[in-house]
UniProtKB/TrEMBL annotation:
Residues 301-315 form the Glucose-methanol-choline oxidoreductase N-terminal domain. The gene is LOC108559591. Belongs to the GMC oxidoreductase family. Transmembrane segments: none annotated. Keywords: Signal. This is Glucose dehydrogenase [FAD, quinone]-like. Pfam families: GMC_oxred_C, GMC_oxred_N. PANTHER family: GH23626P-RELATED (PTHR11552:SF158), GLUCOSE-METHANOL-CHOLINE GMC OXIDOREDUCTASE (PTHR11552). InterPro entries: FAD/NAD-bd_sf, GMC_OxRdtase, GMC_OxRdtase_N, GMC_OxRtase_C.
C-alpha cells in the first residue's frame, strides 16, 4: 500500500508543480459570468433558508459546521470555490499551492515605499478559494497573538472580547498536541495543533542562539509571548488541516446545504426597513436568489466581505455614489486596511545542509508524517520580540525561521519578484544550506484602504496597502531594528557552530549605498518588502460608526438588521500573531450570539 501511495504522490507532486509554474492566475472573477449576464437583474426562482453563510474560509467554515449542529435549522453555505485535493494538503507545497486555482490572486495598486522590487511595484495579495478558504494555501502557523490585543478590543468598546473572554473559545476549537502551558490549550476541538516532527538544524541554531542571548523558549500561545519556539502548526500527522477538512467535512448536511462554485454578487437588503433578506449569487452561469428568514452571515474575508457590502449598498456614501450604487447605510467599509508588512530580503549562509532527495524520498517521509514536506513553506520556527521604542506591553516584531531551501522553482513567481530582485536574492545561494528569516511588523502604523474598482461584482476591488508609508517611519524602523536583532543572533556560538553568516544581497537600485549601512538596509527593505498576507480590519468592530466601526460587538452590521460579519475583516487592528485561528474564534463567538438569540444553551 505504501509504495502505491509513494508512486501516486511522487507523480502527482511533480506534475502539479509543473502546472503551478505554467498556470496563469486570474486577475478578476469574470469567468463566473460566462454569458455576461446583467448582475443587476433578479431571477425569479428562489429558495428559502434560516441562515445563509457567504464564504467558507477560517471564519465561514466554523460558522457553517457549528450552525449545522442546531436541531431543525435550515442553512445554506455559498462558496465560490470547491473541494481541496491531495496537492494542497502537502504543507511543503504551500508556495506552489499559491500558483493554482485555489488562489484568487487579488493584487494591490503600485506602492510608493514598499514592494518596489516586485513586478509593477505591486504587493502580492494571495487569498484562498474553496472549502477552507485561505487555509488552503496559508503557512499554517497557529499563533493567537498577545492577550493585550484582545484586551484592547474590549477596551475599545467591545465588551465580551477581552482575552479572558476569548480564551475559552480558543480552547474549545483546539485539539492541541504541543504539551503547552497548562490552562491555555484545549484537546477536544476540531482544529489540530502540533509541531512538525522534522527537526531542522537551522531551527535548532535559531532557538539556541536566542537562549544564549537571554531569551526563553516558550509556548507563545501560553503564559508569555516574548521568546522563541518551534512553530505550532495546524497540521494533522504532518498534513495540512484546512478548515474545510476540519469543519466542513463534519457538517451535518441534514441541516445545511453546501453549495460550491457559487459566487455571491450582493446581499439583498430592503432599503426602507434596512433589513437583509437574501443573497444573489451566480452558479453554473445562472443567477440565483436565496432568501434568509433569519440572518445572512458574511465570511468572504478581508478583501471580499467589504467588496460585497459595498456592492450591496453599505459603504462610504461618496464612493458608492461615484460607483453608481445607491447607499443604504453610510459606513466606513474598506477603510482601516491593516496588515503585517514583511521583509523577505535576508540570505543566511551556513555549513549545514539538508540534503536534497529525489521526490519519492521526500514523499516516503511525508507519508510517515515526517520530513521537509511537513513544513509549510519551510517555516520551522518563530520568535516574538519587542523594539526598544515600542510603548506597548507586547511583541511588535515576529521573526520566522525559514529552513533551506528557498530557491525552489516557484520562488520568483510566488513572491512576484522582478528578474533583477530575484537574481540578487538567489546569487550565491546553496539551496541545501542557505536559510532565511522573515521579519514581520506586528503593529504596523501604516494603514491602507480597499475600494470598488467598479459596480461590476466580477471586477476585483482596488487595494492600497500603503506599507511603510507611515509618517514617522515607525514601520521601516521596526524592520531595521529586527535586522539588527538577527545580526546579533549571527554572532552567537550556536550560529557560529553552523557557520551562519549573512549572504550578500545587493540590488542594483541599492548598490550605491555603503554595504550594511542604514541607508543600504532602508533601500533593500523598501524593495524586498511585501505582505505576510494577514490583512484584517476592513469591516472593523466597534461601538461607533462615526469612528469607523462597521459591526458592533455582536458582529451585527451597524444600522442593518439580520446581517453579521465573521472573518478577519472585523478585527479592529492587527494582532501580534497570525489571524487564522483568531478568525475561527471570532466565528465560534458569532454562533454563540446566534444561539443566544435563539435562546439555546451555549
Ligand atoms: C500565503 C499565506 C500565508 C499565510 N500564513 C498564515 C499562517 O501561517 N497562520 C495564520 O494564522 N494565517 C496565515 N495566513 C492568513 C490566514 O490564512 C487568513 O487570514 C485567514 O485564513 C482568513 O480567513 P477568513 O475567514 O477571513 O477569509 P478566507 O479564509 O479568505 O475565506 C473567505 C472565503 O470566502 C470565499 N469567497 C470570497 N468571495 C466570495 C464570493 N463573492 N462568493 C462566495 N464566496 C466567496 C473565498 O473563496 C474563501 O473561501 C496566511 C495567508 C496567506 C495567503
Amino acid at each position: 500500500k505504501l509504495n502505491v501511495d509513494v508512486d501516486y504522490f511522487t507523480k502527482m507532486l511533480i506534475q502539479e508543480q509543473e502546472e503551478a509554474l505554467k498556470y496563469n492566475l486570474p486577475i478578476n472573477a469574470h469567468s463566473y459570468n460566462g454569458y455576461n449576464l446583467d448582475p443587476y437583474s433578479l431571477p425569479n426562482g428562489t429558495e428559502t433558508y434560516d441562515y445563509i453563510i457567504i464564504g467558507s474560509g477560517s471564519g465561514g467554515s466554523v460558522v457553517t459546521q457549528q450552525l449545522s449542529e442546531i436541531d431543525g435549522i435550515k442553512g445554506l453555505l455559498l462558496e465560490a470555490g470547491s473541494h481541496e485535493d491531495d496537492f494542497v494538503d502537502v504543507p511543503g507545497m504551500a508556495f506552489f499551492a499559491q500558483g493554482t486555482k485555489y488562489n484568487w490572486n487579488y493584487g494591490t495598486v503600485p506602492q510608493k515605499k514598499s514592494c518596489l522590487g516586485l513586478k509593477g511595484k505591486k504587493c502580492m495579495l494571495q487569498r484562498g478559494k474553496g472549502f477552507g478558504g485561505t487555509t488552503l494555501i496559508n503557512g499554517l502557523v497557529y499563533s493567537r497573538g498577545s492577550p493585550v490585543d484582545y484586551d484592547n478590543w474590549a477596551a475599545g468598546g467591545n465588551p465580551g472580547w477581552s482575552y479572558k473572554d476569548v480564551l475559552p473559545v480558543f480552547k474549545e476549537l483546539e485539539n492541541s498536541h504541543i504539551n503547552g502551558d497548562p490552562g491555555y490549550h484545549g484537546t477536544k476541538g476540531l482544529m489540530n495543533v502540533e509541531y512538525s516532527k522534522f527537526d531542522s538544524p537551522h531551527l535548532n541554531a535559531f532557538l539556541a542562539s536566542n537562549v544564549e542571548l537571554g531569551r526563553k523558549e516558550i509556548d507563545y500561545n501560553g503564559r508569555e509571548q516574548l521568546g522563541v519556539s518551534k512553530a505550532q502548526l495546524n497540521t494533522l500527522n504532518g498534513r495540512r488541516l484546512t478548515t474545510g477538512k476540519a469543519f466542513i467535512s463534519k457538517v451535518n448536511c441534514k441541516n445545511m446545504k453546501l453549495s460550491d462554485n457559487s459566487y455571491v454578487t450582493r446581499i439583498l437588503i430592503n432599503p426602507k426597513t434596512k433589513t437583509a433578506f437574501g443573497v444573489q449569487y451566480i452558479k453554473d452561469n445562472k443567477f440565483h436568489v436565496a432568501l434568509a428568514k433569519r440572518e445572512v452571515i458574511l465570511s468572504a474575508g478581508t478583501v471580499a466581505s467589504p467588496q460585497i457590502l459595498m456592492l450591496s449598498g453599505i459603504g462610504p456614501q461618496k464612493h458608492l455614489k461615484e460607483m453608481g450604487i445607491e447607499t443604504i447605510n453610510d459606513l466606513q467599509v474598506g477603510d482601516n486596511y491593516k496588515d503585517h508588512p514583511c521583509f523577505y530580503g535576508l540570505n543566511i549562509l551556513s555549513n549545514v545542509s539538508i540534503p536534497l532527495k529525489p521526490m519519492h524520498g521526500y514523499v516516503e517521509d511525508y507519508l510517515k508524517g515526517d520530513g521537509v514536506l511537513t513544513l509549510p513553506g519551510n517555516n520551522a520556527g518563530v520568535g516574538f520580540f519587542k523594539t526598544n521604542f515600542s510603548k506597548i506591553p507586547q511583541a511588535d516584531i515576529e521573526i520566522m525561521l525559514i529552513s533551506p531551501n528557498r530557491s525552489d522553482a516557484f520562488f520568483q513567481k510566488g513572491f512576484g519578484f522582478t528578474d533583477s530582485s530575484n537574481k540578487a536574492l538567489i546569487e550565491g545561494v546553496d539551496p541545501t544550506k542557505t536559510f532565511t528569516m522573515y521579519i514581520d511588523v506586528l503593529k504596523a502604523k501604516s494603514t491602507g484602504y480597499l475600494r470598488l474598482k467598479s459596480k461590476n461584482p466580477f471586477d476585483y476591488p482596488t487595494v492600497n496597502t500603503k506599507f511603510l508609508e507611515d509618517d514617522d517611519d515607525h514601520d521601516i524602523k521596526t524592520i531595521y531594528y529586527a535586522i539588527n536583532l538577527i545580526l546579533e543572533m549571527l554572532e552567537t556560538k550556536a550560529m557560529k557552530a553552523i557557520d551562519a553568516k549573512l549572504g550578500k544581497v545587493v540590488l542594483p537600485e541599492c548598490k550605491d549605498f555603503e554595504y550594511l549601512s542604514k541607508d543600504y538596509w532602508y533601500c533593500t527593505i523598501r524593495y524586498l518588502s511585501d505582505s505576510l498576507y494577514h490583512p484584517v480590519g476592513t469591516c472593523k468592530m466597534g461601538p461607533d460608526p462615526k469612528k469607523g466601526a462597521v459591526v458592533d460587538n455582536k458582529l451585527r452590521v451597524h444600522g442593518i438588521k439580520n446581517l453579521r460579519v465573521a472573518d478577519g475583516s472585523v478585527f479592529p487592528d492587527s494582532l501580534a500573531g497570525h489571524p487564522s485561528n483568531p478568525i475561527m474564534m471570532v466565528a465560534a463567538k458569532l454562533v454563540k450570539f446566534l444561539k443566544e438569540d435563539l435562546k439555546l444553551k451555549n
